[in-house]
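Collaborator request, handled under Task 6.
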Amino acid sequence: MKDRNINKKINYSLELLRFILSFWVVSQHCYKKTVRLNKGRFHVPTFMIISFYFYYKTLKFKSVFKIVERFQRILIPFIIWSIFIFINNNVLFTLFGFSQFNYLLPLKRLIYQLIFGSDYHLIFYYQFVLIFITLLFTIIAFIFKKNSLLFYQISLIISYIFQYSYWNFYFFNNYTIVIKYSLGHIVEFIPFATSGLTLGCLNIITNLKKYKKLAIFFSTSFLFLILKYEIFVRINGFWYPGIILNIGGICVFVLFSLFSFKNKLLILVLKIITKFTGGIYYIHIICFLFLEKKILFIKKRMSFHCPIIVYIISYIICYLGNKMSGKTKLKLLFN
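Structure tokens returned to the collaborator:
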């Protein structure tokens, strides 16, 4: 889920945010007591906002190299991990009678996984949506050029019309989980992507530094109001419907972007712990499904140690995989 900053200078406050969001995702999947209320699920929306915030300059300057690089960064893990899980599961089950799913996956499920990203490795619905919106917004940038931001805003408005009218939910909810959790999420995620591009256009991180205290106050206040009170109408949808998650994601992004770190030791720690957030996202479910067969409290998901252990093991695997990949594109599987 990680999308590298196209600027040379690393923003360690956003790197810290990525780490927190990544652990939040792991906790959602591996710890039953994690809060699952829609109004507080800002982790995935914020990831999407960050991704398109840093994609704005690429679209603005029509950098073909950066566009190709972005698609490689998304597609290589999406394709290779999907194929690896399929082959690994079927080989283990054929040879030893046990595997990740404990049954043979038919070829059609691999095809569904590669098309929609949400069959046997459900979390890749996010990758599918990210690929789709990136392609859509890239096409808009090349067709409409200087007016592209206007068309992004129009897509945001249309998306909310489809969400609040329930057209999106009622239409896709009739389909299987494979389709509805990929195609159904496109309309829910377009506003997050648009917000990211808009913040990028405004160069919000730099410009808000002049009003740092005020920005922190309002971001914190809005988050408190959103989490404490029902100040927005909650609507039915898939996992991330409604404007409340967009506003919350923007507030989280702005809040963390205004922090700064100057201590060299702290920066070194951040460099270490914030690595491999993308790779951890790709493989944490694989690690969890393996560990739950061996460790009872992980299977029950009732202990907070569960996501911590899964995160650490996923980190170690990504570290080793990154080292063994050398300078090849296979590094993208773990970064």
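The cover message to the collaborator said: "The radius of gyration is 20 Å. The mean pLDDT is 91. Please let us know whether this matches your experimental observations."
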